[in-house]
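#structure-requests
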Amino acid sequence: MRSRRILALVAGLCGTVHALPGQAVRDGYVVSADSVRIYYRIVGTGPDTILVLHGGPGLTMHYLLPDLGPLTERHTVIFYDQRGSGGSTAPLDSLHITVAKHVADLEAVRVHFGLARLTILGHSWGGKLAAIYAAAHPDRVARLILEGPGAPKPDPRFVRNLVAWADSGTREQIAQLRQAAGEVAGDRIESCRAFWRVFMRGYWADPNDTLSVARMRGDTCPSPGAMRDMTRVGQLTLASAGEHDYALDLGVVRAPVLVVTGREHPMPWTNSEAWAAAFPDARLLLMEHTGHFPHVEQPQVFFAAVETFLRGQWPASAVKVARSAP
């Protein structure tokens, strides 16, 4: 379901970063209602369009883009940096960085590309943003894929689980690396990457399987300001989200929804179960021996399930989750 406008955009070859051989890549900007420039990148020329929402809040498309390459083989995929991060600069204050602003930006992207309804893949916080957008604009969503989504409401177990694998010495190392990454002096990109090389292990099913962790090709630190943006945008966005349980808002969403998560995800998988139960037409795919990055940890299983869903069918292992009694 791709508009002529997207056909025209991808026709011009603007670079080959993170693209497969022969693929067209197009970069540009969407201007939001409050004049923030939202940076996007389009990869692939397939007949259907998928919009990808990255996590954080405060990360960028660059940690996802290389490892979602299989999607670009069959589809046109639109990535964009959410406001305040990467190429989408915005004042890092509570007026400009809110959940409502993120939702408005997503709607501005939809309008810019002339898409009547969106097929969205949201990872982590991006999955939660996709759900919030769908509740606000249920008639503008064709289908949703929530991969390792953030919790419908705050769950303190997530932060604890991220470092549960580490001994006291490693936790002190993580704290020191985080502090160094936030300093202005020195090579800020390298100090940011040094932090993530250790901290990232907590997102994996097996934090000690460093070979598995190393398979991730995405970059969490694409610019000198990456650590600052991640910290501040994350703080402001989550403060705006507050304590609200966003699963309560989803009864109006009629689009099919596939929720995919790992059993060993640091965000307890019962949160994904809650998302799947809240949508009227949803299924949960719980992947064994998998953490926060199913598309990296078990790519064959993940992409096969996604392609089945995009063809209008449910993956065989995806199950319906009953709603709990009020």
